[in-house]
Amino acid sequence: MVLLIRTLYLALLATVLFTAKAQDPAPLDPLTREAEVYLQQLATEKGIGIRQAGTEAEVRAADFIQNTLEGLGYVVKRQSFDYINSLTKEPQTSQNIIAQKVGASGRNIILGAHYDSTSAELGSFGAVDNGASIAVMLATAKLVAGLEQQEYGVTFVAFGAEEVGLIGSYKFVQQISVAQLDTYLGMINLDSIVGSDNLYIHSAHSSPYDCKGNTKRYMFDTSLRDQLFKVANSVTQKNTFEIHSGYDSYPKGETGGWSDHTPFACAGLPIGNFESTNFAINGQSGKDGFSQSTHSSLWTCFDKKNMSACDRESEKKWGKIWHTKNDQLDILESLFPGRIRQQISDNLSVFRAFFTQLDRHIEAMINK
Ligand SMILES: [Zn+2]
C-alpha cells in the first residue's frame, strides 16, 4: 500500500516536473512581465486601445497611469492644459501625469514618455508608439519605488498630446521656473523604444531645434546619452543598443526635434532619447530613421543590397510601423515573434542598472 502510494506519488511528481519543463521557456524577468501587462492594458482592444490627443480615451489612459503610479505609492500630480489641436484646429484639453521619487539633494533626473496615440484612421493602436514606453516607464517606477532614497531623485512624466505638436512636454517645461530648472540634471525620453530592427540611444542635435523661436538656452550635450550607452553596454549583449552612424542631416548619435526630449534640450538640459528604428535604411526622405524595418512584408519590394525600395516610384509601404496599422501587438508579434518582449527586457535592463545606482551614474555624467 505504502509502496503503491509512493510509486504513484513519484509518477505524479515526474509528470508535474516534466510538464513544467516542457511548457516553460526561459524564465521571464518579473519586471518585464509587469511591463507586458501594462502594455496589454494600455494598447490593445481589450484594454484602453486607441487614445488620440484630446479624446475620452486619452483621459482614460491618463487615469490608468495615475492609478498605477498611486498604487505604487507615489503622490501623483495631474497637470491639465488647453491647446489648439494642430491637425483639427479644435480647442482641446489634455494632461501630464507626474510622479516623483525624491532624492536627498533635491536634484533629480526626468524619465518621460508620451501616452497619446495617433493615426487611428490607419488602424494604429500605438502599441510601440508609445504604449511600450509607458509600460517600461511604469515598470521602472515600480522598481524605483522599492529603492532606498539616493542623493538624486527621479521625476516620472507621462506626457499628453505629443502627437499633435509636443504639447504636453512644452507645457511641462514652460511651467518650470528658472530656479526649478536647475534642480533637473537631465531628461531621458522614451519614444517608440521597441518593435523595430535596432535599438538606439540619441542625444539632441548639434544644431539647435526651433524651440518655438527661443533657442537661447538650447543645449547640445551628449553626457547623459554617453552614460546611458555605457550602462547599456555593460548590461546587455554587445550591439544590443547602438549610437547611430552619421547620416544625411543627422550627425552620429544625434536626433531630430520630433519628440518630447525637444523642449528639454531647448531649456538647456542634457537629454538621452531611446528609440527603436533602423537608421541604415534609405527611406522615403533618406536615412532619417523613418523606415523602421527591412522585413519584406513591410515593403512593396525591398532591395537588401541598397537598403532601400527596389523602386522608389512604386514603393507604397517604406518599412513603416509607427503611425500605421502595423503598430498593433498581434501584427508585430506575427512579424517578429518574441521581439517586443526581448526589447522590453533589454530596455529594462538598462533602467534597472541606471536607476539602482543613480548617484554613481549622475556623478560620472557630471564629472565627465
Ligand atoms: Zn511617439
What distinguishing features does this structure have?
alpha/beta, two-stranded antiparallel sheet, Aminopeptidase, 368 residues, binds zinc ion, 16% strand, 37% helix, eight-stranded mixed beta sheet
* Major sheet details: 8 strands, mixed
Residues in β-strands, percent: 15-25%
Gap between N and C termini, in Å?
74 Å
Strand order of the largest sheet: 1-2-4-3-5-8-6-7
> What's the CATH architecture name?
3-Layer(aba) Sandwich
CATH class: Alpha Beta
Tally of helical runs: 11
Helical percent range? 25-40%
- Domain count: 1
- What sort of overall outline do the alpha carbons produce when their principal axes are compared? globular
Please tell me how large the radius of gyration is: 22 Å
The structure class reads alpha/beta
Describe this structure as you would to a colleague.
This protein has 368 residues and is α/β, with parallel strands linked by helices. It contains 11 helices and 10 strands. It has one domain (31-366): Zn peptidases (Aminopeptidase). It is 37% helix and 16% strand. The longest helix is centred in the first third of the chain and has 22 residues, at 2-23. It starts with a helix and ends with a helix. Bound molecules: zinc ion.
